[in-house]
Design goal:
Order of helices and strands: HHHHHHHHH
Number of strands: 0
Number of domains: 1
Radius of gyration: 28 Å
Shape: elongated
Mean pLDDT: 88
Low-confidence stretches: none
Number of helices: 9
Length: about 300
C-alpha cells in the first residue's frame, strides 16, 4: 500500500517508458506523413470522440471494480485481525492463574496450551499473508511457532489452514482442562469459524482474478482510439506536428488509469498497491505480545519501503 504522498517521476517513468515510446512511435508514423504530404484532415474527430467517451466509461467501471476488490480484501483482513484480538481476550489470563474450573486446581498444561494458541494465531496471520503473496510462508515465524508446529506444517500444501487445525486440537485440550465457562467455548468456536471464513474469502479473491479478456480489450480499444486520434488531430487548425505530443499525452492518461486498476485488482500480489498484510500482522503481534503474553521481546513495527507498506 502506497503511503508516500509524493509520486516519484523517475519511478513512474521506469514503469511506463515502454508504453510512452510505443505511443510516440505510433504518433510519429501516422502524423509525420500526414503533415509532410499536407493531406489535411484524414479523419473527422467524431469517431475518436465517441470511442474515447466509451473507453472512459469502460475504464471508470474497471477502476471502481478493482477498488472494490482491494477494499473487500482490506476489510476481510481487518475482520481477521479483530477476530484474533477477540480470541486473545478469551485465552489470556492477566494477573491470574490458569485454574481448572472443574477441579479448582492450577493447570500448567492449560497455561502452555493457551499461550501457544495466541502465538500460533499470530503466526497464522503472518503465514497466510505470505502464502497469498507467493512468498516462503514460514519465514519470520521463528519466535512464534514451536519446533513441533513448524515440523507439522512444513510439508503441508496449505500451512495456514493446517495451523487452524492445530488450534482446534489445542482448544479441545484447554476445554478438557476446564478453562472456559459462561459460554466462552462457544465464543472460541465462533471465532475459529470466522478465521476459516476469512482465509477462504482471501483465497477466493486470490484465485479469482479479474477476467483477462477485459484487460485485453481495454488495451485494444485504447490503441485503436490513439490511432484514430493520430489520424484526426493533424487536420485541426494550427495543430500539425503538435498532434504527436497530444496523442502521447492523451494515451498516457488512459493507460495510467488502466494501470491503476490493473494493480489494484490483485490486492494480494507482492507489489506496491498490495494490502499491507505484513504491516498489519506485525502490528497485531506487537499488541498481543505486549498485552496478552507480557513478552519483553517486542519486534519493531514494519516501516515503509520506498514509500510503500507491504
Amino acid at each position: 500500500m502506497i503511503v508516500d504522498k509524493r509520486i516519484s517521476l523517475w519511478r513512474l517513468l521506469g514503469v511506463i517508458w515502454k508504453q510512452l515510446l510505443t505511443m510516440l512511435t505510433l504518433a510519429c508514423v501516422i502524423v509525420i506523413p500526414i503533415v509532410y504530404l499536407d493531406l489535411g484532415s484524414v479523419l473527422d474527430l467524431t469517431a475518436p470522440l465517441i470511442l474515447g467517451t466509451a473507453i472512459s466509461i469502460f475504464l471508470g467501471f474497471r477502476t471502481n471494480s478493482a477498488y472494490d476488490r482491494w477494499f473487500l480484501a482490506r476489510g476481510t483482513w481487518g475482520s481477521m485481525r479483530a477476530s484474533s484480538r477477540n480470541l486473545a481476550l478469551i485465552l489470556t489470563r492477566i494477573d491470574e492463574e490458569y485454574t481448572n474450573h472443574n477441579t479448582g486446581e492450577p493447570s500448567e498444561l492449560a497455561r502452555t496450551v493457551m499461550r501457544r494458541m495466541i502465538r500460533r494465531n499470530l503466526a497464522w496471520l503472518w503465514i497466510l499473508g505470505r502464502q497469498l503473496k507467493g512468498l516462503p510462508p514460514l519465514q519470520g515465524t521463528e519466535n512464534l511457532l514451536s519446533a513441533d508446529d513448524r515440523d507439522a506444517i512444513k510439508g503441508s500444501h496449505n500451512p495456514a489452514l493446517k495451523l487452524l487445525f492445530l488450534q482446534s486440537r489445542d482448544f479441545r485440550i484447554a476445554q478438557a482442562e476446564g478453562q472456559f465457562y459462561d459460554g466462552e467455548h462457544f465464543e472460541v468456536v465462533g471465532i475459529q469459524r470466522d478465521l476459516v471464513a476469512g482465509q477462504t474469502a482471501c483465497e477466493g479473491l486470490k484465485n479469482t482474478p479479474f477476467p483477462s479478456h477485459y484487460s485485453f480489450f481495454t488495451h485494444l480499444f485504447i490503441w485503436l482510439f490513439l490511432v484514430l486520434l493520430a489520424f484526426s488531430l493533424p487536420g485541426l487548425e494550427n495543430m500539425k506536428y503538435l498532434a504527436i505530443p497530444a496523442v502521447v499525452m492523451v494515451g498516457w492518461i488512459f493507460f495510467m488509469v488502466e494501470g491503476i486498476g490493473s494493480y489494484m485488482e490483485e490486492p494480494f500480489s507482492n507489489n506496491r498497491n498490495v494490502v499491507p498484510m505484513d504491516a498489519l500482522a506485525r502490528s497485531l503481534e506487537i499488541d498481543l505480545k505486549a498485552l496478552a503474553l507480557e513478552d519483553d521481546n517486542i519486534p519493531n513495527m514494519i516501516k515503509p519501503v520506498d514509500g510503500a507498506l507491504y
